[in-house]
Design brief:
This protein is mainly alpha-helical. The protein is globular, with a radius of gyration of 23 Å.
Length: 615
């Protein structure tokens, strides 16, 4: 017999309309993949790795496929809306579930803002009389008027999502056809200006070294450009045939996008005109601040000297608004499902699970997504400022797919698996390493902000989920959470994020001690101690990677203490230890036990019809 909470989750999921087929799920994933990233990442990749950025796109696509394959088995077995934030609760319990949900929420809800920023910034290139952008500390940011336009655009995303998932799926399908066509036409036209000498005469194929090939995967916007693959999973509870449609849509979107990205990178490199960009031939790093930095593909088409390409450049400018807007639309829907999922597990207030009877969408979560998304525009008022944060916060959650698969095979072996991943003994560790290595390749400058943002949110666990789910009393939660918040915030102020007045090793040791003390107190007072044991591995991975990032080849030291490739080998060891620790730490949670005893992870049409008849 399922518990009242389990029945509540199932009943709430049944209210969501199952209207999305494989084509619509594909377009949701593919449409969110093709956003603002492809407009910038070709130049950023070339600036970091030179022509070898082509390899970076291939590596990124392969790694994301490893991650997606592991998620596909679990999402077919347990199709749920807000799936990514709900699975950790089933495999490792509420404490780790909160950590991963919080990290994913930080990343997902801010994407809506970054895509709105991208659209407004491109509009500023021809609407010069409106003064939508300005420069601050060498970075393009939105003015007050620009921020107003970004907020209005997010309001449009809100209205389309509010009309319901069926209208959303149909609307997105037509927008995504446009988003598919424009990148394809762009690389085809750029090949008319192709010069093969750009791949060899300007310092060779990998002029900046092999290590930068991996660094580009994480920091050039390459992995960011693939992030949309998981959006089909977040709409899993609204799929007509999840067993077939989810894996086809998820893997298919990655493969198609990878082919387009690789061809775009090759075409851009071949069409690169050093003189037009105002950069000395071979100065690949100089591209990042060149004349082409504000719109590389647009400038490459214009500089080709071919009339057809110059005319199409104006179409590309229009797409620079449409593509980010389409992705922002999808991510507002996705972040709504994240709020919904966190409300289900009481990571956040339960009112977020309210579903509109008329439109069948989680309307309170949708409002929260709009408000929080707008909030991110205040400190991160420019596209470049927000992308790095989003990338690192998201890849931290990538590692969970492999753990879900292995833990659930152990805790729910008899559940039907419409998609069964063969060779998981190899593909699961590879999927985990894909996420953990991208997390490391992002470098110290990005890691410091993400780790601080994720760990400061731990106090919310003691304020909300712990007391609500009966792990300890509210007074105990406040007694643990309030001192932690004050002490942790003070340490971060004196650390590398703000004043940077503490030596890094001392700052790192203090931060680690504070987090471990917090987790130890939660373990001491909770009545579900296994939940805390199940989360130790992620704290180890975060702090070990953070320490290595400072002393490794992607850190601030001019002469790294641990140079490439030895730092990467150590990162692999950290990843493998974390993977096997994480698999061993998983257990059969109460929710997973109920699902396993039911014999199916699906909310069936018969159950849905019975729920409707019962009112």
């Amino acid at each position: 017999m399922a518990s009242s909470q389990s029945r509540e989750w199932e009943a709430s999921d049944r209210k969501l309309r199952r209207e999305l087929g494989v084509q619509q799920l594909f377009f949701i994933s593919f449409g969110s993949i093709i956003g603002s990233g492809w407009l910038f990442a070709t130049l950023n990749g070339a600036a970091i790795a030179g022509p070898a950025a082509t390899i970076s796109w291939i590596i990124g696509g392969i790694l994301v496929c490893f991650i997606a394959l592991n998620y596909a088995e679990v999402s077919c077995m347990l199709p749920r809306s807000g799936a990514v934030v709900r699975y950790p609760h089933l495999s490792h319990g509420g404490f780790l579930g909160f950590i991963m949900a919080w990290a994913f929420l930080l990343a997902t809800v801010s994407v809506t803002g970054v895509e709105a920023e991208a659209a407004v910034q491109y509009a500023a290139s021809y609407a010069t009389n409106l003064n939508l952008t300005t420069t601050s500390n060498g970075v393009t940011v939105l003015t007050g008027l620009g921020l107003l336009f970004a907020v209005l655009l997010m309001g449009v995303f809100f209205l389309i999502n509010f009309l319901g998932v069926k209208f959303f799926g149909e609307f997105n399908r037509w927008v995504t056809w446009w988003k598919f066509a424009i990148p394809v036409i762009t690389f085809v036209l750029l090949f008319f200006a192709f010069k093969s000498s750009n791949f060899s005469s300007a310092g060779g194929f990998a002029p900046l070294g092999g290590g930068e090939v991996f660094n580009a995967v994480a920091t050039a916007g390459i992995v960011f450009s693939y992030f949309g693959f998981r959006q089909g999973l977040d709409f899993g509870g609204e799929a007509r045939n999840p067993q077939r449609d989810i894996p086809l849509a998820t893997i298919g979107s990655v493969v198609v996008a990878a082919a387009i990205y690789i061809l775009l990178q090759v075409a851009f490199l071949g069409a690169l005109n050093w003189n037009a960009a105002g950069v000395h031939p071979g100065d690949w790093a100089g591209l990042a601040t060149s004349k082409w930095a504000d719109g590389p593909l647009y400038h490459a088409l214009n500089a080709a000297g071919i009339a057809l390409l110059a005319y199409f450049a104006y179409v590309l400018l229009a797409d620079a608004i449409i593509s980010p807007s389409g992705t922002g639309l999808i991510y507002m829907g996705a972040s709504t499902r994240v709020f919904y999922g966190m409300g289900m597990h009481r990571d956040l207030p339960g009112g977020l699970t309210r579903v509109s009877e008329r439109y069948r969408i989680p309307w309170v979560a949708l409002i929260a997504s709009l408000i929080v998304g707008c909030f991110f525009l205040i400190p991160y008022s420019g596209w470049a400022l927000l992308v790095g944060f989003i990338t690192d916060a998201t890849v931290l959650t990538f590692v969970m797919g492999s753990l879900h698969l292995q833990v659930m095979r152990r805790t729910a072996p008899n559940l039907e698996r419409p998609f069964y991943l063969k060779g998981a003994s190899i593909l699961s560790p590879l999927g985990f390493l894909a996420g953990s290595m991208i997390f490391y390749w992002a470098g110290f400058d990005n890691l410091r902000g993400v780790i601080a943002s994720v760990l400061v949110g731990l106090c919310l666990y003691t304020f909300i989920q712990g007391p609500v789910r009966g792990r300890f009393s509210r007074n105990v939660g406040l007694a643990i959470g309030v001192p932690y918040l004050i002490i942790f915030a003070a340490t971060q102020y004196f650390g590398p994020l703000f004043s940077n007045s503490l030596p890094f090793l001392l700052y790192w040791a203090l931060t680690a001690a504070e987090v471990l003390a917090f987790a130890g107190l939660v373990w001491r007072f909770t009545n579900q101690k296994r939940e805390v044991h199940a989360a130790w591995w992620v704290l180890f991975m975060m702090f070990a990677t953070y320490l290595l990032s400072y002393y490794g080849s992607y850190g601030p030291l001019k002469t790294p203490l641990v140079p490439f490739p030895w730092d990467n080998l150590i990162a692999v060891v950290i990843g493998l230890i974390s993977y096997y620790w994480g698999v061993a730490a998983g257990y059969q949670t109460e929710e997973m036990k109920e699902i396993a005893e039911s014999g199916t992870g699906l909310v069936t049409p018969e159950e849905e019809e019975m729920e409707r008849r019962l009112g």
